[in-house]
C-alpha cells in the first residue's frame, strides 16, 4: 500500500475575485442581499437584470469602488483589476492620446531607468548588481511589449472610431458617449487580469462592437460586463449572472442559452410548486380531519397524528412561488390612417457641419410599410438626417418630401424632446392631449408606479425616459415611425417587448440602431451612409451583414499581412533606437574620459614647458633637458591624438 504522502488532493483554483454574502442598501430597502459569486481565469460573464436592479452597483463592489453594507470581496493574490464606468474621470486639459499614453507610465519609468543604467555601465561595465537589474527590466519591457506602445494606442483610437484629428483634443471636449469609449480604451490597453465593464458597447458603432468582440476573444483577461446588447452577450459571454429579487443567479452559456434555461427552469419551478402546494393542502386537510376527530372523541392519538402532519409540513423544503409579476408593457403600437405609396423622398440632399460635409447629393425613397434601417459609422450623419427629416420634412419640400397623409412619430436617443422641469403626468398630458386620469393610465401601462407620476422628468433614469417616449408614441396614432437608437437604456425584457410592439405596427419604419438583435428581427431593407451618399441595399439586415462580412474578411487578410510587417518593422526600429542610444551613451562616457585625460595632459604639458625653460636658461644639466624635451614631445603627440578623437566623438553624441 502506498504511503499517505503519495496521494495529493486536487489543488483548488484560487478565484481572481470572490464575493461572499454581499448586501447593499441605501436609504430604502436592500438592493442586494446574500449574494455570493466568484470570477475565475478565463471567465466571460454577462451581468444582466432589470433597470435599477443593482447591476452597476454590484460591478463597483467587485472592483472595490463601493463598500458593501454586508459581506466581503476578496481579491486573488496579485490579481489586477480594471474598471470602466459609464462616466469617465479624467484630468482637465489632457489630450486623448496623452490620457491613453498614461496607461503605460510603468513602461516609461522602466525605459528611463534602463537608460540611466546604460550610462552607468559605460563607466563601470563590471557592476553585477546593475547588470542584473538591467536584465530584469529588459525582461519586463519585453513582456509589456514596450516597443509597441505608441502603435497600440494609435490602433486602439482607430478601432474605437475616433478620427485622427481629434486625438490631440482635450478629453473634456468630447461628448459623454465619446468619453465612455475612451474609458473602454484605457481598460483594454491596461491588460489587467479582470476587466469590469459597465455597458462597454454603448456608443460604439457596429464595426466598433465587432472589433470589441474580436478584442475580447484575443484577450486573456476574465471579463464581467453589464450589457443590454444581446448580440454582444451571445458572442462574448460564456456565463450569465442575472440579478433578480436581490439575488444573483448564475446561468451557464450565452444569452440565448440563458433564455432557454430560464424558461425551462421557470416551468419546472411552477410544476414543482403546484405539486408541493397540492401535497400541503392534502396534509392540512388530513390534519384538520384528525384534529376534529380527536376533539369529537377525546382521542389523544388522533391529536398526536394531526400534530405530526403539521410538523411534516413545517419541515418541508418549500419551493418558492414563481414570480408572476407582470413586467410587460400593456400597450400596442397601432398605426394611424394609411398614407399613400410614398412615405419619404430624399433628393439631392446636401448638408455640412462647419467645414465638414456630411451629405452631398444624397437620394433615397421609402414606400409605405417598408422597414428601413440607416447604418454607417459614428459621425457619418445618421442622426443628422433623421433630425432634418423631422424638422424640415414636408410635402412642399422637394429635398425632404414626406407623403401628404404621413403622420410622423419620433423617438430621440438623447431624450431632448423631454422637458426636464415637468412631471411625468404633466408632460404626458401636454404631449398627448389626454386628461389627468387617462394620462396616468397610459403611464401605468408602461410600468410607471403611482409614486412615479409626480416625479420631475429630470430625475428619471435613461430607461425610464425611454419608456416615457414610447408611451407618447402609443397614444399618437402615427403611420411613420422614425426611431433613433430606441433600445438604448432599455433593459433586455423591455427591448424584446418593444420589438413585439414594432412587429405588430403596420406603418412605415425608419430606424437607426446598433442593436443587431433588434435589426435582425425588424428590418427588411438597409440604407448605408457612405461617401456622403445614401447607398441602398435591398436585403434584410442579416443578409446585408453577411455579404458585408465576406468582403471585410478578405480585406482583413490583406490588412493582417500589412500589420505583421508593420509590427516587425516597429520592433526593428525600436531595437535600432535602443542600440543607437547605447552607442551615444558609450560615446558620452568616452568623451568624458577623453576630456579628463586631456585636462591632465594639458597640466602636465604646462609643467614640462616650464621645466624646459628653466633648464635651457641655466644650461648646466643638458641630459635633464633632453629627457624633459622627450617627455614634452610624448605628451604633445598623445594630446594631438586625443584632440582628434574628441573632435570626431563630440558631434556623434547628439544622435544626428
Description:
This protein has helices at residues 55-62, 96-101, 105-123, 128-143, 149-159, 176-190, 206-218, 230-236, 255-297, 300-315, 382-392, 424-432, 436-445, 462-476, 492-504, 516-522, 541-618, 622-649; strands spanning 17-25, 30-39, 44-49, 70-75, 81-84, 194-198, 222-226, 239-244, 247-252, 342-353, 356-367, 371-375, 400-402, 408-411, 480-484, 508-512, 525-530, 533-537. Residues 1-11 have low confidence and may be disordered. The protein has 656 residues and is of the alpha/beta class. The chain is flat, with a radius of gyration of 37 Å. The chain folds into 4 domains: 17-104 and 146-259, 3-Layer(aba) Sandwich (Rossmann fold), CATH 3.40.50.300; 275-315; 342-538, Rossmann fold (3-Layer(aba) Sandwich); 563-654. The protein starts with 16 loop residues before the first strand and ends in a 7-residue tail after the last helix. Helix 3 packs parallel to helix 17, helix 12 (424-432) crosses helix 13 (436-445) and helix 17 (541-618) runs antiparallel to helix 18 (622-649). Helices cover 50% and strands 17% of the residues. The strands form 4 sheets. Strands 5-6-7-3-8-9 form a 6-stranded mixed sheet, sandwiched between helices. A 6-stranded mixed sheet has the order 14-15-16-12-17-18, sandwiched between helices. A 3-stranded antiparallel sheet has the order 2-1-4, covered by helices on one side. The chain is built from 18 helices and 18 strands. The relative contact order is 0.08.
Amino acid at each position: 500500500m502506498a504511503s499517505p504522502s503519495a496521494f495529493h488532493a486536487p489543488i483548488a483554483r484560487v478565484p481572481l475575485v470572490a464575493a461572499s454574502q454581499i448586501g447593499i442598501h441605501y436609504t430604502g430597502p436592500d438592493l442586494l442581499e446574500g449574494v455570493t459569486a466568484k470570477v475565475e481565469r478565463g471567465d466571460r460573464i454577462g451581468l444582466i437584470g432589470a433597470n435599477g436592479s443593482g447591476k452597476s452597483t454590484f460591478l463597483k463592489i467587485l472592483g472595490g469602488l463601493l463598500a458593501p453594507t454586508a459581506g466581503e470581496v476578496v481579491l486573488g493574490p496579485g490579481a489586477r483589476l480594471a474598471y470602466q464606468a459609464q462616466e469617465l474621470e479624467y484630468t482637465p486639459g489632457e489630450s486623448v492620446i496623452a490620457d491613453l499614453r498614461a496607461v503605460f507610465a510603468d513602461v516609461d519609468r522602466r525605459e528611463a531607468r534602463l537608460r540611466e543604467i546604460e550610462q552607468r555601465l559605460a563607466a563601470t561595465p563590471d557592476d553585477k548588481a546593475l547588470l542584473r537589474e538591467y536584465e530584469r527590466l529588459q525582461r519586463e519591457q519585453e513582456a509589456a511589449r514596450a516597443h509597441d506602445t505608441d502603435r497600440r494606442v494609435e490602433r486602439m483610437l482607430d478601432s474605437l472610431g475616433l478620427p485622427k484629428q481629434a486625438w490631440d483634443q482635450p478629453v473634456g471636449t468630447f461628448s459623454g458617449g465619446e468619453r465612455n469609449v475612451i474609458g473602454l480604451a484605457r481598460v483594454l490597453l491596461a491588460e489587467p487580469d479582470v476587466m469590469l465593464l459597465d455597458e462597454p458597447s454603448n456608443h460604439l458603432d457596429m464595426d466598433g462592437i465587432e472589433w470589441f468582440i474580436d478584442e475580447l476573444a484575443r484577450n486573456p483577461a476574465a471579463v464581467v460586463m453589464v450589457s443590454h446588447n444581446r448580440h454582444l452577450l451571445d458572442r462574448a459571454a460564456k456565463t450569465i449572472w442575472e440579478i433578480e429579487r436581490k439575488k444573483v443567479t448564475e446561468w451557464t452559456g450565452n444569452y440565448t442559452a440563458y433564455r432557454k434555461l430560464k424558461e425551462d427552469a421557470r416551468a419546472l419551478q411552477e410544476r414543482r410548486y403546484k405539486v408541493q402546494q397540492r401535497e400541503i393542502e392534502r396534509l392540512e386537510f388530513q390534519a384538520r380531519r384528525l384534529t376534529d376527530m380527536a376533539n369529537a372523541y377525546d382521542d389523544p392519538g388522533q391529536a398526536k397524528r394531526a400534530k405530526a402532519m403539521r410538523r411534516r409540513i413545517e419541515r418541508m423544503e418549500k419551493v418558492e412561488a414563481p414570480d408572476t409579476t407582470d413586467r410587460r408593457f400593456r400597450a400596442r403600437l397601432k398605426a394611424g390612417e394609411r398614407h399613400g405609396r410614398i412615405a419619404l423622398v430624399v433628393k439631392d440632399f446636401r448638408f455640412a457641419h462647419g467645414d465638414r460635409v456630411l451629405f452631398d447629393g444624397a437620394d433615397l425613397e421609402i414606400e409605405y410599410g417598408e422597414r428601413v434601417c440607416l447604418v454607417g459609422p459614428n459621425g457619418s450623419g445618421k442622426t443628422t438626417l433623421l433630425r432634418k427629416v423631422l424638422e424640415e420634412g414636408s410635402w412642399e419640400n422637394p429635398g425632404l418630401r414626406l407623403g401628404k397623409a404621413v403622420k410622423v412619430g419620433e423617438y430621440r436617443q438623447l431624450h431632448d424632446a423631454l422637458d426636464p422641469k415637468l412631471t411625468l403626468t404633466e408632460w404626458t398630458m401636454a404631449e398627448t392631449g389626454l386628461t389627468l386620469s387617462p394620462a396616468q393610465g397610459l403611464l401605468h401601462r408602461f410600468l410607471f408606479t403611482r409614486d412615479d407620476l409626480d416625479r420631475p422628468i429630470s430625475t428619471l433614469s435613461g430607461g425610464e425616459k425611454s419608456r416615457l417616449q414610447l408611451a407618447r408614441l402609443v397614444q399618437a396614432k402615427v403611420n411613420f415611425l422614425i426611431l433613433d437608437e430606441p433600445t438604448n437604456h432599455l433593459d433586455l425584457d423591455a427591448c424584446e417587448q418593444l420589438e413585439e410592439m414594432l412587429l405588430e405596427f403596420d406603418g412605415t419604419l425608419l430606424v437607426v440602431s446598433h442593436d443587431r438583435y433588434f435589426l435582425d428581427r425588424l428590418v427588411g431593407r438597409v440604407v448605408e451612409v457612405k461617401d456622403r451618399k445614401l447607398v441602398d441595399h435591398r436585403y434584410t439586415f442579416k443578409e446585408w451583414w453577411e455579404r458585408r462580412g465576406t468582403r471585410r474578411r478578405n480585406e482583413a487578410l490583406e490588412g493582417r499581412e500589412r500589420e505583421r510587417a508593420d509590427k516587425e518593422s516597429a520592433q526593428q526600429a525600436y531595437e535600432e533606437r535602443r542600440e543607437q542610444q547605447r552607442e551615444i551613451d558609450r560615446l558620452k562616457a568616452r568623451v568624458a574620459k577623453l576630456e579628463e585625460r586631456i585636462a591632465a595632459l594639458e597640466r602636465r604639458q604646462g609643467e614640462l614647458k616650464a621645466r624646459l625653460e628653466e633648464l635651457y636658461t641655466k644650461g648646466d644639466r643638458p641630459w635633464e633637458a633632453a629627457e624633459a624635451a622627450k617627455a614634452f614631445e610624448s605628451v604633445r603627440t598623445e594630446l594631438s591624438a586625443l584632440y582628434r578623437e574628441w573632435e570626431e566623438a563630440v558631434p556623434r553624441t547628439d544622435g544626428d
